[in-house]
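Exercise 7b. Backbone tokens:
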């Protein structure tokens, strides 16, 4: 997977050591046309890029660790709903502590909804549920004014469009999309061994998570969109933590468990 190297080498901030933080250049934007999925940095570094911006202009950041020439890549999305706070802790732990094995890499997006995270709301700043806003046959503009409104049109929100562009460039083998509080591993059947590894490592049952889209249509979610659009490259899976999680679970247990299930550790 070598399609993001040129673009990210130009726009990323490379940090020597997992815990270091430095500001992005002024005016940083989402990467342009790309030629590699892994940035040109040594395996022991963390590379940071801005993949887009929220409705209120907050940056949506992604961090890469691993082999610059990785052919096996995991994406972990810590948060899509701003009132679900455990996933970003997993993302931060992975960013700081995980060293992927040779030939692999991990992209960590702590949140794709920084406005909701700041306001502690499920929706983004325009009141859209970002996990109902993906452009699939199951998208609907119903339920306006509720926590589950899919927006005025498919992919209407800048946060959704940023993630779509990012995933089209990275085309990961595995995506772990973390949520709360339904406690389970989303069961799609597309990669049962991966689902079972997640369930075993995170001590969660495999369950079906529906969003109420009509029968015969594809759910307007990240997982529904990725699996139906880019599924030849990999699989996206919803991970639902419980309403309450221990610090150990949402850091070491979940971080190591997801990485091992994706075989990047």
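Sequence design result:
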């Amino acid at each position: 997977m070598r399609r993001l190297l040129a673009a990210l080498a130009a726009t990323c901030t490379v940090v020597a050591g997992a815990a270091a933080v430095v500001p992005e250049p002024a005016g940083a934007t989402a990467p342009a046309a790309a030629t590699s999925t892994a940035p040109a940095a040594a395996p022991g570094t963390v590379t940071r890029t801005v993949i887009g911006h929220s409705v209120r202009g907050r940056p949506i950041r992604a961090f890469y660790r691993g082999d610059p020439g990785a052919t096996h890549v995991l994406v972990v999305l810590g948060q899509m709903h701003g009132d679900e706070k455990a996933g970003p802790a997993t993302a931060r732990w992975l960013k700081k502590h995980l060293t992927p094995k040779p030939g692999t890499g991990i992209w960590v997006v702590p949140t794709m909804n920084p406005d909701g995270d700041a306001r502690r709301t499920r929706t983004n700043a325009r009141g859209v549920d970002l996990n109902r806003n993906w452009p699939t046959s199951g998208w609907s503009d119903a339920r306006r004014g509720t926590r589950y409104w899919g927006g005025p049109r498919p992919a209407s929100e800048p946060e959704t469009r940023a993630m779509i562009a990012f995933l089209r460039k990275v085309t990961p083998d595995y995506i772990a999309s973390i949520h709360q509080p339904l406690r389970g591993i989303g069961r799609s059947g597309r990669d049962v061994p991966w689902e079972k590894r997640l369930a075993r490592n995170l001590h969660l049952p495999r369950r079906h998570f529906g969003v109420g889209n009509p029968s015969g249509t594809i759910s307007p979610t990240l997982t529904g969109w990725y699996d139906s659009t880019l599924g030849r490259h990999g699989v996206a899976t919803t991970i639902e933590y419980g309403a309450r999680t221990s610090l150990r679970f949402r850091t070491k247990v979940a971080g190591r468990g997801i990485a091992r299930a994706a075989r990047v550790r």
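Instructor comment: The first strand starts at residue 13 and ends at 16. The two ends are 18 Å apart (CA to CA).
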